[in-house]
Each structure stands twice: as C-alpha cells, then as structure tokens.
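pls design
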C-alpha cells in the first residue's frame, strides 16, 4: 500500500525531486563534476514523472520533466533584441592581434597593459535566453542582430540550459551564448541520419543551427545540442560587477554553463600566449572552435571604447586557420589497397586548408560518393581537421556546371586490369588480381614492414615502389634476399642507407608470433586478432591446421574472420611465402597457449588516455591483452577501466561521468 499523502506533502515531495534534479544538472553541466551516476539521476527523474502523472494539476512549466512541449509550432515568431546581438571583428595572426591591443590602448590613452577576458570562439549558433524571475521564458536566434526568431520551444529541450535559475537571480536576465554540437554528438547524429536513409550534415555548426530551426521540438530534443554562455543582454534588478569575468562568475553561480577555458590575460603578449595555448589543444577539445575571443575585461572601459557598425571596439576574434574551404573537384580516381579494395579519391584544385595545401582527399567508398552526389567539376567543401586525412564533406550544388556526370565504379582494376568484383551484400568492390596486382603487392609489403608488424625501419613507400616496379621483390620473403649492392643501385639510396636497411631487415627476423601473423596481412586480422590467434594456438602448425570451427573459438574471431583465416592458409601461394619466410630465418619465442577464461583480465574492457610515465601505449596495450583484457579507443557504458596518464584529455571526464574505474600505470602494472 502506498502511504496516503496530502496535497502539501505531494507539493513538497515534487519540489524536493525538482530541486534534486536541478542540482544534479548543475553539477553535471555547469560544474562538470557530477555527484551521482546517471542511473540515480534517471531514477529521480522517473519518480518525478510518476508523481506528476498522478497529480497533473501540480505540474509547473519549469519542472525538469517539461522540456519537450506537446505540439509543434507552425512558424517562428519574431523577437526584437533590445540590446543588439553584435558580431566580432576578426584578427588573423599575431600582428593583427597586437595591433588590436595597440588601438585599444591608444583610444584609452593608456600605457599600462589591458586585461582581457579570453575564451574559445565556439562554432555554433548564437542564441539569447530570457529569464524572468529566474524562469526561462524565451529563447531567440541572433537573426540579423536586431531581430531574431523565437525558438523558445527548442531551447527548452537543451539539457545544459536551465529552465529555472538558482541563488537569487535578477528579476530580468538575458543570457547570450552559443548553442553547439560536440564532435562526438555530431558523429553519432550523422550516423543515425545516414542509417535512416537521410542526408548527413556537413559540419557540427550546420547541424546545430539546423536543429534549432525545427518546428517540432521533439526533433530538436533528439539532437545532441549543448549551450555555453559568453555574455549578457538586458539585465534588471542586479548591479553588475565591474569586470566581465565577474559577470561570467555570476552567471555560473546562477546555474548557467560558461566556458571552462576562460581566463583573464594581460596585454598583447598574454593574448598571443593564450591563442597559442588553445590552438595547441584545439584538436583534443570535445567540440569545434574556430578561434579565440578577447574582450576588454573592465566594463567601464568597454563603454568608453564603444562600437563600430555591428561590432564592439572592445572585442576581437582571433581566428584559427580555416578547417574547411571550397575548391573544385577535378576528377575522381580509384586507389587499390592491400586487400584489393578500390577507394575513390578526389583530385582537387590545390587549396590551402587546415594549415596545409591539399590536392587529394578521401571519398571513403562508393556509397559515400553516391550519398554526397559528388561529381567531377563540382565545387566541393574540403575539410582538414587536425592531422586527420582531408575529406570531401559536401557539394555546393548551386555551383554545379551543367553536364556534370556521376561516376561509376570501374569494371577493371586501374592498376593491373583484372576484373573488379563486388560480392553480393558487400559494400566494397575489389580488384580480383590478388598479388598479381602491383598495387596490392606494394600495399602488402608496406603492411608487412610497418611498425606494428615486422617493424623494418627505412623501408618506406617510395622504396617499395622501386622494389616492386623493378621486379626486385614480389613477396615479403624476397625482402630477406636483398643485397646491399642491389639496394645501393636504387634511386636516392646511398651505400650507407642500403647497409642500414639490410641490417634492419636482418633484425626483423627476431620477431614474435603475433606480429608475424599480423604482418601476413590476412583480411580482417588486425593486431589484436593476430595476438589472440597467437596466444590461442601457440604455434604456426597448430594454427595452419585449424579448421573454421576451431578458429571461431578464438576470442573476437567470428565466422567471417575464421573463414578469411582458413582460406588464407589454404592457398598454396600463401603457404609458399610462409615457408620461404621461415627458411629465411624468421623466428619467435615459443608461446604457451592459454584459454581466455583462465586469464585474470578476461572479459574486461580498457581504454588508455594521456602519457604514461614508463610504458608506451603499445606496451600498455600488449600487457592488458596478454592478461586477457581488451583495449578500445573510446569510453562507453561497456568500459571497465580507464588507464590515465599525464594530460588525459576528455576521456577522463567522460569516464568520471560514467563512473568508470580509473587506474594509473602503477595500478595497472601492480
Ligand atoms: S562575444 C559583443 N564570445 O561569434 C560580442 N561570441 O562573430 C558578441 N561566438 O555571433 C559575441 N564564441 O555566435 C562571443 N566566446 C564567444 C563566442 C562568440 C562564439 C560567436 C557568436 C557571435 C559570433 C561573433
């Protein structure tokens, strides 16, 4: 029996639950320091939902359950901004930044260094949030700066925007900031869109802006939007402090998320140093930024400086080199990989993007080419973020020349003219030439020599090209017969480097079983699977004798991989290559086969982050795997342990939020 509650009991119970949920939201989004696991939050949320369902008359619009309104709106009303929403002047490079600071001091007639509030420039959409007596009553886009659109129904769905403020907020407060999508959220959303047959967004900014302009708030609620505030508009009932940095502190105390990277810096040199610090972190941040913003911190000085046209004189955006640019796609060509897979590659009019000149970009596969409908002659958006391979993210359809034709997968291999085959149900088309195809042979050799395989130092791509094109090497086993004289006769090879290369080929003969298996380049056998196979079977004869059934007993080996392994060893030419390699003198220490379940870390999933004091990433990974554990790249609900070293980055935060156990190197080793 449920105890009978009077109305005031119910009201106080409702208020308690709401206050608890608001508090946990604040801890999570604003302080980035959650107090309870997600499951506890969900439990409180369900309790509140249940109590409200029984007492619908007691539901208030600012209750945490009331984020998604019932009905879509028919259009967006206009909102006029009493204080205009301005834009920022840009500065490119240290000189322009220093010049900005010089102009400020000149106008202020001040010799001393000026204090600036510095923070990242988020790449999303600007919004204004209006709170009356602490309750969110309206959200609006920037529009043209004077008039925006009413998107109240959508901003309410964003979890990091509080519906009610805490700690005696002013009677009227307009908060300004950026709605954006994290890189991870964007990737997941695009995956979902394409899985559902929709068109992906070209970048997180478009995704954020598009999500805010939905008529149906249920759609917006399903988008991973976030909010960070950077300023205020109209404020009544509160005397704001002197410094902008203090205003931000107040916003935070009222429960509004501000940037965790904001800092007050002194003078031009402080600005330049901050710019460089953030630029160095850029690729590791969980969201995209396109620069940093500097604002004169003292508000009386801001007032003195005033505005030009649509931008304040007291602020500047120091931009990073663009990660996206437009260029013309000259042609789509096909590259042949190690397993014969044909990958479409975009040949571009060279364009400066992400700090380098790019003339080739990946198009991943034909599905992607069709989905993006990329055609030679098109003007395309090229993206190069951090050290990631440049890619074509989309087409500017308005600029398509008439007669631009879609391209088809070639029927014959562009390298060896063998048939291209695409088995039913497979996404990838492959050259059927196998090791007859020079492209596949080159890739197989490159893989064989790579760091995580046989680790043959000095055997680079250019050299492999020469070796294959000059018929000096056909299979990996031929590498072990190369002489110093043969090598020294090649282009750009001095006697000394030829000697070094022969020495490193010789050195690679002492290997381990896992590396050797990985080096063979069996389809779908990555380094982890190779190591599992090595551990499970212990020696080569046992592995080569295993049928598909026996192979599928190995952890992480499913029927498809088992079939690939079996068919690899069934082919006479592969056996011959292995024989030659063994004859050449390849050896490895004996492995004692072990059953998975007997290993101490069996069934446990690990993620590594940051720099460990003694072990390299590869060493830590090898240790974990040797004990039966599995190492993955990103934190999820399935992660058991995070091993964190120095400068751990966002994985550590995520692990904390998810309640994943965090270990340091000592704990891992000990
Ligand atoms: S301040 C009066 N701070 O950049 C200054 N803007 O080009 C108004 N933005 O529309 C803006 N991060 O959408 C400011 N930390 C930041 C920002 C930021 C992103 C956007 C904002 C604005 C545009 C200005």
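designed seq:
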């Amino acid at each position: 029996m449920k105890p009978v509650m009077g109305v005031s009991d119910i009201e106080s119970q409702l208020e308690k639950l709401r206050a608890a949920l608001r508090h946990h939201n604040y801890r999570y989004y604003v302080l980035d320091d959650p107090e309870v696991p997600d499951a506890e939050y969900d439990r409180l949320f369900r309790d509140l939902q249940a109590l409200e369902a029984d007492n619908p008359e007691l539901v208030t619009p600012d209750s945490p359950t009331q984020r998604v309104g019932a009905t879509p709106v028919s259009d967006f009303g206009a909102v006029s901004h009493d204080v205009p929403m301005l834009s920022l002047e840009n500065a490119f490079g240290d000189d322009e930044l220093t010049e900005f600071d010089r102009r400020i001091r000149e106008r202020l007639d001040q010799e001393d260094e000026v204090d600036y509030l510095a923070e990242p420039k988020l790449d999303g959409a600007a919004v204004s949030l209006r709170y009356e007596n602490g309750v969110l009553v309206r959200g609006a886009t920037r529009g043209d700066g004077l008039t925006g659109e009413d998107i109240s129904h959508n901003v309410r769905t964003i979890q990091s925007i509080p519906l009610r403020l805490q700690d005696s907020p002013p009677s009227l407060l307009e908060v300004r900031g950026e709605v954006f999508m994290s890189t991870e959220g964007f990737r997941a959303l695009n995956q979902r869109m394409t899985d559902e047959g929709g068109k992906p967004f070209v970048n997180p900014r478009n995704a954020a802006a598009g999500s805010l302009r939905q008529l149906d708030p249920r759609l917006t609620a399903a988008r991973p939007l976030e909010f960070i505030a950077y300023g205020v508009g109209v404020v009544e009932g509160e005397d704001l402090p002197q410094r902008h940095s203090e205003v931000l502190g107040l916003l935070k105390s009222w429960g509004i998320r501000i940037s965790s990277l904001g800092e007050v810096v002194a003078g031009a040199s402080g600005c330049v140093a901050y710019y460089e610090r953030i630029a160095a972190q850029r690729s590791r941040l969980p969201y995209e930024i396109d620069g940093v913003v500097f604002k004169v911190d003292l508000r009386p000085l801001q007032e003195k400086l005033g505005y030009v046209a649509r931008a304040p004189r007291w602020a500047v955006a120091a931009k990073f080199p663009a990660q996206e640019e437009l260029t013309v796609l000259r042609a789509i060509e096909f590259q042949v990989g190690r397993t014969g897979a044909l990958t479409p590659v975009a040949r571009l009019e060279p364009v400066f993007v992400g700090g380098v000149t790019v003339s080739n970009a990946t198009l991943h596969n034909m599905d992607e080419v069709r989905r993006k409908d990329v055609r030679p002659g098109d003007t395309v958006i090229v993206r190069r973020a951090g050290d990631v391979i440049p890619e074509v993210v989309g087409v500017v359809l308005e600029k398509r020349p008439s007669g631009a034709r879609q391209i088809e997968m070639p029927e014959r291999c562009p390298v060896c003219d063998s048939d291209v085959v695409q088995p039913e149900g497979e996404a990838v088309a492959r050259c059927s030439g196998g090791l007859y195809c020079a492209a596949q042979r080159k890739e197989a050799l490159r893989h064989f020599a790579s760091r995580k395989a046989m680790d043959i130092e000095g055997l680079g791509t250019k050299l492999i090209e020469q070796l294959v094109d000059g018929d000096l090497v056909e299979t990996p086993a031929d590498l072990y017969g190369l002489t110093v004289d043969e090598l020294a006769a090649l282009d750009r090879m001095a006697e000394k480097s030829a000697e070094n290369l022969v020495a490193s080929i010789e050195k690679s003969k002492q290997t381990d079983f896992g590396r050797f298996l990985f080096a063979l380049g069996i389809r779908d056998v990555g380094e982890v699977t190779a190591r599992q196979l090595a551990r499970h079977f212990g020696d080569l004869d046992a592995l080569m004798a295993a049928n598909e059934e026996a192979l599928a007993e190995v952890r992480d080996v499913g029927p498809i991989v088992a079939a690939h392994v079996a068919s690899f060893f069934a082919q006479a030419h592969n056996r011959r290559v292995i024989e030659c390699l063994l004859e050449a003198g390849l050896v490895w220490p004996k492995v004692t086969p072990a059953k998975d379940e007997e290993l101490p870390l069996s069934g446990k999933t690990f993620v590594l982050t940051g720099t460990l004091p003694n072990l390299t990433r590869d060493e830590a990974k090898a240790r974990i795997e040797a004990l039966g554990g599995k190492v993955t790249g990103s934190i999820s609900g399935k992660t058991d342990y995070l091993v964190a070293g120095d400068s751990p980055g966002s994985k550590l935060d995520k692990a904390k939020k998810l309640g994943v156990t965090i270990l340091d190197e000592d704990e891992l080793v000990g």
